[in-house]
Write the structure tokens for this entry.
Amino acid sequence: MPNLEHLDFCRELYVVEKTVEVVVSIQGEPEFIRIEAFHDLQAGRYKTRSCMQAKVKLQAAHGNQGLIETDAWVDYDLPWTDGETADEVVEQALGFLRERCD
């Protein structure tokens, strides 16, 4: 755990304590979802953020390739979670995700 006394320059500080990846069916399509449980060291609570794997088009940095398609993790909006442990907030997030699954 980082020593908070040495990190007084940080406005906020979080430690990702658990990451869960699942494949679920949403509107008949398989979706790869990642849920991260992070510990807010200043508040002492846990929260989650989530993302999904999606195809995105990016401009190639070199050459004359134009747009290239690749997979990327993009934000996935699940309702807000809050708890005392990483497991607790992951369970909350999975419960919200279950409501969207086929």
